[in-house]
Description:
Chain A is an all-alpha fold. Chain A has helices at residues 3-10, 13-36, 45-54, 56-73, 82-97, 104-130, 138-147, 152-181, 184-187, 194-197.
Amino acid sequence: xxxxxxxxxxxxxxxxxxxxxxxxxxxxxxxxxxxxxxxxxxxxxxxxxxxxxxxxxxxxxxxxxxxxxxxxxxxxxxxxxxxxxxxxxxxxxxxxxxxxxxxxxxxxxxxxxxxxxxxxxxxxxxxxxxxxxxxxxxxxxxxxxxxxxxxxxxxxxxxxxxxxxxxxxxxxxxxxxxxxxxxxxxxxxxxxxxxxxx
Amino acid sequence: xxxxxxxxxxxxxxxxxxxxxxxxxxxxxxxxxxxxxxxxxxxxxxxxxxxxxxxxxxxxxxxxxxxxxxxxxxxxxxxxxxxxxxxxxxxxxxxxxxxxxxxxxxxxxxxxxxxxxxxxxxxxxxxxxxxxxxxxxxxxxxxxxxxxxxxxxxxxxxxxxxxxxxxxxxxxxxxxxxxxxxxxxxxxxxxxxxxxxxxxxxxxxxxxxxxxxxxxxxxxxxxxxxxxxxxxxxxxxxxxxxxxxxxxxxxxxxxxxxxxxx
Amino acid sequence: xxxxxxxxxxxxxxxxxxxxxxxxxxxxxxxxxxxxxxxxxxxxxxxxxxxxxxxxxxxxxxxxxxxxxxxxxxxxxxxxxxxxxxxxxxxxxxxxxxxxxxxxxxxxxxxxxxxxxxxxxxxxxxxxxxxxxxxxxxxxxxxxxxxxxxxxxxxxxxxxxxxxxxxxxxxxxxxxxxxxxxxxxxxxxxxxxxxxxxxxxxxxxxxxxxxxxxxxxxxxxxxxxxxxxxxxxxxxxxxxxxxxxxxxxxxxxxxxxxxxxxxxxxxxxxxxxxxxxxxxxxxxxxxxxxxxxxxx
Lengths: 198, 262, 296
């Protein structure tokens, strides 16, 4: 199948409609969770859902656009982390493609893999553009680590991984559960979803 | 417009073609973070953006939005790096076991300057451009139609789904679900809120896509548009100049960092 | 030539145990108003999707038979080619908003832009469509501030502006209140009288009885009745299929045993028919002779 045909297949109107809704879910759930003051973000649930149903590229694009749109309407700082959101989608989609989203414990493993992968992108952005700081509670940890003699890079590494691990595992589990719980008539329209539902 | 930074108006900035403003924001961001001479590359685009905004009467608005977005981050940056930056050598002030170092403060100041300047440049685009016009401009620039849909439609869907979240929250609270309390209680409150929202949103997806198909969304015709966006040759030229300048300064910046030997 | 031809249509969704549609055949002539009735799950929605050319191309199931709309075979043409020839209105008003336009006027323009309509033609078509659905003064409003009934009329206007030959509606009043439903039905009837071919799946038997030219009834994917509203809506088979009768029909049927309704008179499906029939009946006991009824 030529690239153009593959693109059309991966980005059918149904997939586009799904991605639009997923982008909104990312934003809305992220806000809801921060209202509940839980130690997770859940702002990539839509990204992972799209990755499971429509593949890594659709998932990656969903993440990227979520941050761009959030930057457009509320906080341009979010645009800086668009690559991180994109990696989450791509890696989740790849995990699903290689059979790592069939069982619940695999979903947990995938969440951990996603965390490691996103760190490669998040840490340089955080260190170079934001001086390692987020304006959130995690900064206390960074301060403490710096005070104990670690360099900025290591301090941020430890914070990023510990911040994201729980969130990405929860997100992966939740997305897995939702895809499993969807009506078969719906998932049948997404060729890539079979990697999760079968 | 709720859920948006866009400020309706008729300033000269508003009347510029969206792609011109986008080119400016992108060029500025590149120069600020990658140009040669860290302080100068950060300060000049930021000042230029502020000047343009001031001429359009939007400077105060942008300054206050930027303040709101950066205030906390800036304080934390100064505190964390002032006290704990590994490169701290020159002590400005000693407070018991802790000392504030000049190098750390300087580092924090540079980060804040860069963020503020980038924010001014991007708000120049966002505050003075209606999202629909930006999307239309991108579609006219032959951005794939699907991408234009993905940029445009979440903006309108967002208030609709946010309302549904509120309705579900109200319903759940009426049934006595805790949204305050211990961590475990709040964690348990999450699922009954998130699950119905996600499922109901997904159920709609199929009907939405069918409605789009029926309106010819995936038809192979070249598409026309109801209204035209005003564009002028000087603006087109300016866009290319800005992007070229950004490219050149990017290369200069990489050069100076590799061979500048600092 | 019939505008819509369905021949031996059978369709099974991917992964489903049984077919959603079984061997359905019927034709629709230009300008007819055809109503499709059936219990939930009988296949009305699937039939509508098949008529709009969305099944089988988008859903990938197994299809036998043929559906030809405006001369195009649905198996051989992409949905994009049916847009502008067949219009489809669905149940949920909010889901039919494109989500890309900030005013009612631009929302109606969306379909025209996708079809490549020349810019000069757009204003006339948009205003005409808004006029037909009674939203003429609301062009500058945001679609998201409209009521459900107004949004549904906007969805219809958006389709009408594309000037389709055939209009298919899948339970368009399902999520509307009685006023909204009534307003929509009035518009649809006017369109049909003006010559648009309309196929509408609905539960409102009363409206169908008064205004449809023809009715087909579905049960478990099969078409089991096809005829004039009077015939179809008074057939006893509707009861078995879980569709039910109108109250007048039921009352007259009960009345036949009690001598209130003439035994050899057709059961009524509209209020007028019911009133006339009850007026002419004369009370009698089984076994006695009847007086000749009023020739009405």
